[in-house]
Amino acid sequence: MVVPARRRSALGALGWTANTVLEQSIKQQKATELDTLLNTEVTTLEVWFDSHKVFAGVVARDPTVRDLVARLAQLGTDREVLIAAPEQQQLLAFMAPLARAQNYVDYVITGSDGVVRAAPMLEAVGNQSRTRHYQFILPALAGDVMVSRPFRAEMPLPDDTGVPTWGRPTMFVAASILGADGVVIAALGLRIRPEVDFTRILHVARPGETGETDAFDVNGLMVSQSRFDNDLREIGLLPSDTSVRAIFNIEIKDPGGNMAREHTPTSPLAKQPLTRMAEHAISGGDGLDVDGYRDYRGVDVIGAWRGLDDYGFGIATEVYVDEAYVALHRVRWLFRGLFASWSRQRSAPCSRQFPLPVSGGARTQRWCAPSDSASTRSRSRSGPEGWATSIERPMPGCDDLPPSNCSRRDAVGPRNLPASSARYRQQAS
């Protein structure tokens, strides 16, 4: 079928409009999905945080805990005295079952002076609280209940096999312990293993096969586990040692290209900029981008992000552009294929037009007689009764007309019209 230029233009405009409307609709749908998923993740995390706060507050207000801690506080800061005190073992006997029941690793009780008064790991007792730990329990020493963001432990902690290992991820929930006069005398810290519950919450719901929700701190450092540790090893962002995970080892920076497709960054990691998402989130803004940007692997993704200022970190939900818009890409290719097919067709010039009466004489259709070459092709494909079976078909009364005018386009009708042949010959003469 030959599509005239004007019709091709109209079809092209219609296809472009349909593609634009479809693209806007799909992007709006993806924006809604990402925003809904992010809200679900944030709400779930806040509920989880609140449950830890409630439990820590209940334990910190327990009369047994308050009495034992008050007696330890009166012993001063001498390490040997604190370790040998019977209150140390009494606290351990009381706290250990509670900690295990709620999946806490252990507990740390820090005095208002920053000295650790009690802990299952006796090497910490009597020492000044570690810098990061003390930073996170300061709100509790001021009377608040808080949950820290995940951070790298400053002392050896047992790994999955029970072997003490440096640099393990950890986080705390802390609550105030009051003395008999209602004054804060210490802070109770319950140690949480973030790679278990914290990461599990982030990974429970994800958008598609390539979707991921990650947490990051104010420096753009990932503070949650990644689903793509093996991929990160393959592209060189993680070492081959399987004990090294993405948490605390991946900075959310833009490498400038897709490293999964063998792109090599031109700048060292320290000089690479943060991704668009991380830069916007760290600057204090919640955001959504459904047009696409590069993630820390250089893969084009769409995403939504939010900063949790009360906890000192942010979270982002992202999914590959290729997966998010697979339906849109397929429709685009369909439109392109159709338009390309129409564009390859050529409208043959008309050397002469012939009116063709329609039954009843109510109206007349005009058929264009194309060039000699088109007529030759038509005759070569014509049927045995004088009318071609192809798209271009010889006119009735063809014997009395020039060969170059002896065809018509797209005529579908009876093979023999003897009554109309004379009329054609008369109108053509």
Verbal overview:
The longest helix has 56 residues. It is built from twelve helices and 16 strands. Strand 1 and strand 2 form a beta hairpin. The protein is elongated and about 95 Å long. Strands 1, 2, 3, 4, 7 and 8 form a six-stranded antiparallel β-sheet that branches. It has a four-stranded antiparallel β-sheet with strand order 9-12-11-10, sandwiched between helices. The protein has three domains: 166 residues, Beta-Lactamase; 132 residues, Beta-Lactamase; 71 residues, no CATH class. The protein is an alpha+beta fold and 429 residues long.
By CATH reckoning, the class of the largest domain would read: Alpha Beta
The CATH architecture of the largest domain can be named as 2-Layer Sandwich
Specify the biggest β-sheet: 6 strands, antiparallel
Number of helices: 12
CATH overall fold name of the largest domain: Beta-Lactamase
List keywords for this structure.
Beta-Lactamase, single chain, disordered C terminus, 3 domains, 429 residues, alpha+beta, six-stranded antiparallel beta sheet, 38% helix, four-stranded antiparallel beta sheet, 19% strand, elongated
Break the fold down into its secondary structure elements and pairings.
Layout: H1 5-60, H2 63-73, H3 79-84, H4 86-101, E1 107-111, E2 116-118, H5 131-141, E3 146-147, E4 151-152, E5 157-158, E6 164-165, E7 169-178, E8 184-192, H6 197-204, E9 212-216, H7 229-234, H8 276-282, E10 287-294, E11 300-308, E12 313-320, H9 321-324, H10 326-344, E13 352-357, E14 364-369, H11 372-380, E15 392-393, E16 408-409, H12 418-428
Antiparallel strand pairs: 1-2, 1-8, 3-7, 4-7, 5-6, 7-8, 9-12, 10-11, 11-12, 13-14, 15-16
